[in-house]
TrEMBL record:
Residues 302-331 form the 4Fe-4S ferredoxin-type domain. Pfam families: Fer4_8, LUD_dom, LutB_C. Keywords: 4Fe-4S, Electron transport, Iron, Iron-sulfur, Metal-binding, Repeat, Transport. GO terms for molecular function: 4 iron, 4 sulfur cluster binding; metal ion binding. GO terms for biological process: lactate metabolic process. This is LutB/LldF family L-lactate oxidation iron-sulfur protein. It comes from Gordonia aquimaris. Gene3D superfamilies: Alpha-helical ferredoxin, NagB/RpiA/CoA transferase-like. InterPro entries: 4Fe4S_Fe-S-bd, 4Fe4S_Fe_S_CS, FTHF_cligase-like_sf, Helical_ferredxn, LUD_dom, LutB/LldF, LutB_C, NagB/RpiA_transferase-like.
Amino acid sequence: MPTFPDAARSALADATQRRNLAHATGIIRTKRAEVVAELDNWEQLRAAAAAIKDQTLRHLDQHLMRFEENATAAGAVVHWARDAEEANRIVIDLVRAAEADEVVKVKSMATQEIELNEALADAGIDAWETDLAELIVQLGDDWPSHILVPAIHRNRSEVREIFRHRMGQVGRPAPDDLTDEPRRLAEAARLHLREKFLRAKVGISGANFAIADTGSLVVVESEGNGRMCLTLPETVISVVGIEKLLPTWADLEVFLQVLPRSSTGERENPYTSVWTGVTPGDGPRNVHIVLLDNNRSTVLADEVGRDALRCIRCSACLNVCPVYERTGGHAYGSVYPGPIGAILTPQLRGTGSAVDASLPFASSLCGACSDVCPVAIPIPELLVHLRTRVVDEHRGGMPTPETGAMKAMAWMFGSHRRLEAAQRAATVGNRLLGRRTSIGALPGPLAGWSSARDIPVPPAESFRQWWKRERSEKADERGAAQ
């Protein structure tokens, strides 16, 4: 992947995607604002959600052990995965043990993070996404561009063409008379997925929340496809980030109020599925839970950066971000796009690559993301924190043009004589430029700066020069008066 500035430049040239994004995010923003305004205690709910998350993260080791104990007692098998490779290996072994060569999947950011679908494909196992938007992305050989609405960059006509050309290659084909009417598209997806649900031996999910007190997992969704994956297969495997823990059921009450309002602009989710271990005669016979670290422990050790682990993947920050609205999610080069991706991805993957090092700078720091976050993550503060880290990690060696410019500025401002000399030189530049009010494009490394800004012409007289002249003229006036 290219760095964010390069990828964003390409995305900005796609007028269709920009229209799709502006339309979709605008609708979600409006719906969210309406349902949030109905609650007089919205800010208290945000504060409570943040406090619950902070308390849980401070004692995460204890809550994880209690969750494992209670989940095991309920008949589930708990696995621990240090990283993506170990998690994928565990899942592949479980699918093979179930004698399956395909799985149906609930929409899951964690499985996308570890690239589980790709690992399953390499092992000869087909993974079918069942969320409608994820299905569109998968059939289109695409990449998700939004946390909540992965196919937000696609319009209805594009979806129809994807269904017509790809469904028949992997299952039941789309109807010949398929139109781009939403109802018809949803019907085509339902019929295509039904045969996969009915024959699947294994379902794979993530979890929105994990309850330590009972060992339960919770998934919230809008379509019901996730519930089909959780109830029909004989084996269910859930890949769960360790930060998804909540201590008690009472804590869940808070999050089931803030999550739907922040994500889909609804008062409650249409489907909230909760499962606890194995129930004889009802649901899956085998339940496996893979608790995923994948550098979350490293994030937890950062006293500033750990606030990102509060995230409940609602996507509210994406829908208000002026940068995301114009570039879309692909420019971020990560499964986590937008403001939350700009802070979460560099922490989970590190800032060793040019792509990840560029993400903390993919923001104007306007603060809109922090204002709408239901768990009050101070995203702008974390962005600045990560920018500092990136700069510190790249100190020494061959300086960048920006580093050279900053050192030159520091040298100039380090002496009033050097500063005065620079100001005098600037006034000479004013005379050379004549009556012009601004400078056009600057050359070389400065071209990026001037491409989005009008560079003002240097003043005809600096403040220091004006001050000296005024004092001299007043002294002359006083001398003449005497």
